[in-house]
Write a structure and sequence with these properties.
Distance between the termini: 7 Å
Number of helices: 8
Structural class: alpha+beta
C-alpha cells in the first residue's frame, strides 16, 4: 500500500519536484542523485521491497520495527493477533507498515542509491507517513490490506479510513516525528509490550 502511494506521488510530479518533497522527509544530506534514482525505480516498478516478518521477540517492547541490515520489516505477533478482530489495532498495524516502509526508503536512499549512509535526527518513518497522507494527500486506506497465515489458515486483515486517521493522529504528531528510537540496525515504531518463532505477513 505504501509503495503504491509513493509511486502515485512520483507519477504526479517532475523529478526535481519529487526530490524536493522527499528531501524534506529524508534529509538534504542525501544526494539529489539518490532521489532521482528512487524516482526512476518507482516509475519503472523496480523498487526493492522489504520483506515482512511477524516475530515473537526482538522488538525491545515495540510493536514494529525495521532491520536496516536485512532490509526487513518486523511486526510484533501480538499486534497481528489483535488486528484480526479489532479495526483500531488493524489501523495501527497498517500505519506501522507504512512507517517502516518509510525507514526502508531512507535505507535505500543512503545505502543503495548513494553511499551517504548515516541517519537523520528525526523519525523518518513517522515523517514519511505524515507527509504521505497530509502533505502529499494520499487517500486514507480502507478495506483489506494484508493477509496473515497462522496454523495453516489465511487470515485477512482490514480496517477503515476513520480508524486509520485516528492512528495517524496518535502516532505521527510533532513529538512522535521528533523521536527516533533505535537499537543497532533496528529502528522502531510506537511502543508496546514486545512478545521466537517467525511467520510471514503479506501486505
Amino acid at each position: 500500500m505504501a509503495r503504491a502511494a509513493l509511486c502515485a506521488v512520483a507519477a504526479r510530479g517532475a523529478e526535481a519536484t519529487f526530490a524536493s518533497k522527499l528531501a524534506k522527509v529524508f534529509g538534504a544530506d542525501v544526494p539529489v542523485a539518490a532521489y532521482q534514482a528512487l524516482h526512476k525505480a518507482l516509475l519503472g516498478r523496480t523498487l526493492l521491497t522489504p520483506g515482512i516478518e511477524v516475530v515473537a521477540s526482538g522488538l525491545v517492547g515495540h510493536e514494529a520495527g525495521y532491520d536496516n541490515a536485512r532490509r526487513v520489516i518486523l511486526v510484533d505477533r501480538q499486534l497481528v493477533f489483535l488486528a484480526e478482530r479489532d479495526k483500531s489495532k488493524a489501523a495501527t498495524l497498517l500505519l506501522a507498515l507504512v512507517e517502516e516502509f518509510g525507514h526502508h526508503v531512507d535505507n535505500l536512499l543512503r545505502t543503495e542509491y548513494s553511499s551517504q549512509e548515516g541517519d537523520g535526527p528525526r523519525d523518518e518513518g513517522a515523517e514519511f507517513a505524515h507527509a504521505l497522507f497530509f502533505s502529499w494527500q494520499a487517500p486514507p486506506p480502507s478495506g483489506p490490506f494484508a493477509t496473515f497465515v497462522r496454523a495453516g489458515r489465511v487470515q485477512r486483515l482490514s480496517t477503515d479510513a476513520a480508524f486509520f486517521q485516528k492512528a495517524l493522529q496518535r502516532h505521527t504528531g510533532v513529538q512522535e516525528r521528533a523521536r527516533d528510537e533505535k537499537a543497532g540496525p533496528l529502528q522502531f515504531f510506537g511502543a508496546g509490550r514486545g512478545h521466537g518463532a517467525r511467520a510471514v505477513l503479506r501486505a
